[in-house]
């Protein structure tokens, strides 16, 4: 009877797999259509605050897919599909264009965008960035590119070349989700970057002394190398105070502001400037 049970398990497993595959193909098809018709792809912006001031000084562009029947689908769900299908390049272009138009509209702000390793591995990528900036007469220093630690530690000559080109043009480079990879410290050593963003998982655990020690060590290392530090995923007033005390430069998280659509960002900034005027 074990045999029968086994067979049954395979049947269930098989139909589950088939269902997953069908869903996956459907999402892939819908994503392609969404990119072609463009309206379903939106770019939200999360404000980043200086530890010194009250006002947002920077914005992180975060892509959103508003699916016609499923509603908003998280980028953690559709970015991997975009990477597997090559659609990531198209998404990157949409986000880049939107970010550049925000930079034009808000001359006091800097903006960061998230780059996939696949984009950085493409020789067209750095040229595309430089062209988008030049078309609007934007200073390259106002754009920052975030790459995750796992991308940064990979060994790819074209990726290194893209970063060198962008950095020598003045574009800033940040390591995102710092602390979640492996050879992070050595890679940051080898590789010139401007900023590290401490991963939310460390911020979540700040009430623990070992996590506080880890964050303090990251900040000390970053400062010794002249790097800026952003803490991501700040959700409480306690975390905010601890991070300020540890010498973190920039802070980002739901406690300060959620990612907002462009209109929301503009009214937030208007509110801020009238509060400080
Ligand atoms: P990330 O770049 O590390 O972005 C931070 C993520 O944490 C965002 O999720 C943001 O909404 C969320 N977050 C910020 N503050 C808090 C907080 O206080 N609490 C919690 N629970 N979450 C917070 P989101 O927008 O869902 O993006 C997830 C990831 O998807 C991003 O992580 C990034 O890796 C990727 N992603 C987003 N937009 C793009 C894009 O345009 N291109 C590429 N290649 N990847 C993107
Ligand atoms: Mg990021
Ligand atoms: Mg991150
Ligand atoms: Mg992340």
Automatic annotation (TrEMBL):
Q: Which domain of life is it from?
A: Bacteria
Domain EAL spans what residues? 24-273
Q: What is this protein called?
A: Diguanylate cyclase (GGDEF)-like protein
Organism listed in the record: Aliirhizobium cellulosilyticum
Q: What is the lineage of its organism?
A: Bacteria, Pseudomonadati, Pseudomonadota, Alphaproteobacteria, Hyphomicrobiales
């Amino acid at each position: 009877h074990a045999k029968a049970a086994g067979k049954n398990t395979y049947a269930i497993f098989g139909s589950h797999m088939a269902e997953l595959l069908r869903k996956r193909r459907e999402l892939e098809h819908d994503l392609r259509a969404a990119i072609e018709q463009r309206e379903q792809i939106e770019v939200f912006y999360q404000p980043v605050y200086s530890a010194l001031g009250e006002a947002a000084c920077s914005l992180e562009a975060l892509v959103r897919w508003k699916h016609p029947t499923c509603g908003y689908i998280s980028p953690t769900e559709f970015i991997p599909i975009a990477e597997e299908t090559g659609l990531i390049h198209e998404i990157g272009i949409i986000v880049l264009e939107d970010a550049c138009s925000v930079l034009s509209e808000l001359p006091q702000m800097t903006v960061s965008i998230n780059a996939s390793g696949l984009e950085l591995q493409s020789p067209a990528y750095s040229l595309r960035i430089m062209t988008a900036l030049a078309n609007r007469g934007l200073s390259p220093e106002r754009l920052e590119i975030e790459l995750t630690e796992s991308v940064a530690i990979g060994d790819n000559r074209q990726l290194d070349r893209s970063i060198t080109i962008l950095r020598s043009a003045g574009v800033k480079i940040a390591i995102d989700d710092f602390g979640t990879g492996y050879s992070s410290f050595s890679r940051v050593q080898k590789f010139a970057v401007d900023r590290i963003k401490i991963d939310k998982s460390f911020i979540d655990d700040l009430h623990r002394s070992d996590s506080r020690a880890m964050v303090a060590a990251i900040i000390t290392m970053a400062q010794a190398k002249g790097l800026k530090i952003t803490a991501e995923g700040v959700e409480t007033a306690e975390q905010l105070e601890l991070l300020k005390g540890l010498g973190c430069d920039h802070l980002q998280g739901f406690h300060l502001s959620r990612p907002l659509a462009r209109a929301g960002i503009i009214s937030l900034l208007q509110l801020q400037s009238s509060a400080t005027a």
